[in-house]
Each structure stands twice: as C-alpha cells, then as structure tokens.
Design brief:
- It catalyses: N(6)-dimethylallyladenosine(37) in tRNA + (sulfur carrier)-SH + AH2 + 2 S-adenosyl-L-methionine = 2-methylsulfanyl-N(6)-dimethylallyladenosine(37) in tRNA + (sulfur carrier)-H + 5'-deoxyadenosine + L-methionine + A + S-adenosyl-L-homocysteine + 2 H(+).
- The chain is 35% helix and 18% strand.
- It is of the alpha/beta class and 484 residues long.
- Strands 17-18-15-14-13-16-19 form a 7-stranded mixed β-sheet. Strands 1-2-3-4 form a 4-stranded parallel β-sheet, sandwiched between helices.
- The protein starts with a helix and ends in an 11-residue tail after the last helix.
Length: 484
C-alpha cells in the first residue's frame, strides 16, 4: 500500500514539473551519505505498523539535518501513516522538516511544498477522512510490467494490536467500473501483471452493499485482454468465502498464490487480538484452497509474544504452522503501538521470552520452507522476468523473476541470449528448476542443455521502447484507458 502511495506522490511531483534527481547529473553529484540523493525535494513516506518505523524516520531526518543546513533551499516532506499519527510533533522533533501530510491528503503535496516555500515555515496539513482516492491521482509507476491497483482503502476491523484503522480510516471501496478502467489503462501501458490492493480485499463491496463483489471483481479483472497475471493482498480469514476460492480456481490469470494472515494459532490469543475467526476456520480455509488449487503457495503473518500469550498458546501456533505447510511466513515480535488496546494490556511478554519463541518459530518455518522448495527440483516453472536481479545475478550471468506462485527464481542465460536484447524485463521464460534453496529457486536448465523458452510480451516490448526513448520512461499515467 505504501509503495502504491509513493508512486502517486512521484506522479504528482512530476506532473508539477519536477524530475527524478538521478536524471540530473549535476544535482546527483552533490549527494551525501545522508541519503538525500542531491535532490531539491526529499519525500519520506512512513509506516506506523511497528515501533522501528518511528526510530528509522527520525534517524533519517537527523542525517538530513546537516544537508539542510548546507542547502537551506532543499525541502523535506514527511507523509504516510506516521505523519498521520504524529502530526505537528514531527516538526517539533525535527524543526527542519518543511511539509507534513497524512494518508488522506496525498493530493495536496505539491501545494504544501509551495506554501512552505512561500511562507518560510513548515506546512502541516492532516485530513481526518479521505478527500481524493489515491488511485485517481497521477502515477509514476516504477515497473513497466507490474502494477498496483487499489480496490479499497481503510479497514473496518478492530484488531487490538493494529493502528491501521485509526490512521487509514473506515473502509471505502472503489466502484468496479473504476477499478477495471485503471486495470485496462495499466495494461495498455504495458503491464502484464496487476496486484489488487486493500487492507481487507475480501470484504470488498461492503460499502456499496454487494455480497460476493470481490469474487466477481477477480473474474472481471481476469478477463481483461492482455493481462497475464492477477494477484491480490491481503484477505482476512474471517471474511474469506468459498466464492473467492472458486473464482481463483476458475480464472486462469489469477495466480495460485495466497497470503492468509494467521497471527496466532491459539483461539484464546485470537480472541484477545479481536480476530473474528478461530483456528478451525483458518485451517478449513487452507484445506479448501488446496483442494481447489493443489499447487497454491500460501504465505502468512504471525505475531509472537502478544500480551498474555503463554507457552501453551505458542505451542498451538507451532502446531498450526506445522500442519499448514506455509511456503513462507512473515514473523514478528509483538510491537506495542500507542493508541491500540493491546498496548495497555497487562501480562506483556518479556522480550527474552518473545525472542526465544520467535527463534523457535523461524527455525520451524525454515525447515518447512526448505522441504517445500525441494519438491520443485526438476519441475517446469514460468517466470516473469524482473528488472532488478539478485545480488549475485550479474556475476553469474543470471536474471531473476517470479514464478506463477510468486516464488523468487534465478535463471542462468544460455549462450546467445542477452538480458535487455533477446530477453527483456516483462518477458516470460519457461525453464526447469535445477536447485531449490529455502527462499529461492534456481532454474539453470538453459545452460545445461535443457528447457529455456522465451515468451515475448507486450511489457518486454514497452521496456525496449523506453530504452530507445527516455521520454517514455518519464511518462506519468492518469489512469485513463487507451484506445487500441
């Protein structure tokens, strides 16, 4: 969601005539180790889900203070969830910040920068409710081949550990026609993959009173001509229904990957978290998904050390993880967020106990992930080639991308195939897996005399055209479909 918002911020600034600093060599040359990049404007888009985000923000702002003293005309803007939460306190702690704006008024960023410049004082503006839906704003998409499309903002759940509903507001859904128009627009610009975004995507339709709206939307998006892959994140187990499973199974372009947040395997802890499902329902969802989509890769989120969690509660989480066979899990130590009910609960779990449980959980999931990955050795995978590879790709003449189930795959290029020429970002490759590591697959079949089939795509062609015409790379999208 934050990446999606950042693309809108960049689109707004470029519409106002600003350009990325890396395209201006004389400006980029003055970059410092503070991370300013040599830019005239630095925008920090913040998160507030975990305490570490706040520490990082003020650490970064502290580094930028010296740059601001040396280049007083440089402007610093802070937006996103932490800005929504802290408001004027951002400027109180970092007086050299020029602009503070929240999650509900991204659209005013250029105006606030002008106001701060004119008044020579910080411009702080926080709205309490959404004024302009972010997806309707100009967009500078980072990727040619993949796009984020927001279907809703906000959340109606009241999880006791989560600050998001307070900062993003109640759920607001876009109309299906608007979403389809944006999907058609990004496909016309070259995207072959779209990820539908929402705090709780499977409750989509609640604000305009249509049950089953998300399943219908998946089918409709899946029919858009030229779109190869559809993904979505994140659903909530309490509202996840069989019609969504059916839509996933019956729509070929909806990918066999599902992120299903567990949070805890203990019904007692789930009750304290105010998560409106229980272990049996969660495991039942996974069973039905795998029955309908046998090759589905299921990932999850788990919080360790929620207030009041006992060793028995934690053992139940380990049992669910063992039974569920997640392909990977995002595991977190509980982080108290001011303003949430959980932050004031008694029986806060000591850090050393949390850390011990966390390490045991990670060890279990690493074993499961490794066992799951090993099953792919010798299998064929279809990989959407990414623009940014792994750290060792260049040295080993490899490229990287994502399989249909969203696993990271590294591929070695056979003789006669050059990245950026015969194979371009956004193209697809069919290859066979030759090695499986816990968090990635290696498909070197092309250099071993085996399968290596390139499937050119419209996205690859657009990437190629952008290399020949740099002006195309700087084009800002207004989310309007093109006639073809």
């Amino acid at each position: 969601m934050n990446v999606h918002d950042s693309e809108r911020m960049a689109g707004l600034l470029e519409t106002e005539g600003y350009v990325p600093v890396e395209t201006v060599p004389e400006a980029a040359a003055r970059a410092t180790e503070a991370g300013d990049g040599g830019a005239d404007i630095v925008v920090i888009n913040t998160c507030s889900v975990r305490e570490n985000a706040s520490n990082r923000l003020f650490g970064n702002l502290g580094q930028l203070a010296q740059v601001k003293r040396e280049r007083p005309d440089m402007q610093i803007a802070v937006g996103g969830c932490l800005a929504q939460q802290m408001r004027e306190k951002v400027v109180e702690r970092a007086p050299w910040v020029d602009v503070v704006f929240g999650t509900h008024n991204i659209d005013v960023l250029p105006a606030l920068l002008r106001r701060a410049e004119h008044n020579r004082k910080a411009a702080v503006e926080i709205e309490e409710s959404l004024k302009v839906f972010p997806s309707t704003l100009p967009t500078k998409r980072e990727s040619v081949y993949s796009a984020w499309v927001s279907i809703s903002v906000g959340c109606n759940n009241t999880c006791t550990f989560c600050i998001v509903p307070h900062l993003r507001g109640k759920e607001r859904d876009r109309r299906p026609g608007e979403i389809l128009a944006e999907v058609e627009a990004v496909v016309a610009q070259g995207a072959v993959e779209v990820t539908l975004l929402g705090q709780n995507v499977n409750s989509y339709g609640v604000s305009f009173g249509e049950r089953g709206a998300f399943a219908d939307l998946l089918r409709a998006v899946g029919r858009v001509e030229g779109l190869e892959r559809v993904r979505f994140t994140s659903p909530h187990p309490a509202a996840f229904s069989d019609d969504v499973i059916e839509a996933m199974a019956q729509t070929p372009t909806v990918m066999p990957s599902l992120h299903m947040p567990l949070q805890s395997g203990s019904d007692r802890v789930l009750r304290m978290m105010r998560r409106s499902y229980r272990r049996a329902k969660f495991e039942g969802i996974l069973e039905r998904v795998r029955e309908a989509i046998p090759d589905a890769a299921i990932t999850t989120d788990i919080i360790v050390g929620f207030p009041g969690e006992t060793e028995e509660d934690f053992q139940q989480t380990l049992e669910v993880v063992e039974n569920s066979r997640f392909s990977s899990a995002f595991t977190f130590l509980y982080s108290p967020r001011p303003g949430t009910p959980a932050a004031d609960m008694e029986d806060q779990v000591p850090h050393d106990v949390m850390q011990d449980r966390y390490e045991r959980l990670v060890a279990l999931q690493e074993r499961i992930t490794t066992e799951d990955s090993k099953k792919f050795e010798g299998r064929e995978v279809e990989v959407l080639i990414a623009e940014d590879g792994g750290r060792k790709d260049e040295a080993r003449n490899r490229v990287s991308g994502r399989a249909r189930d969203n696993r990271l795959v590294h591929l070695a290029l056979p003789d006669g195939v050059q990245y950026g020429r015969e194979l371009r970002p956004g193209d697809m490759v069919r290859a066979a897996v030759t090695h499986a590591a816990p968090h990635h697959l290696v498909a070197d079949s092309g250099v071993q005399g085996g399968l290596f089939e390139i499937i050119p795509t419209r996205a690859g062609q657009v990437w190629h055209e952008r290399q020949d015409n740099p002006d195309m790379a700087n084009r800002v999208s207004l989310g309007i479909p093109l006639l073809r």
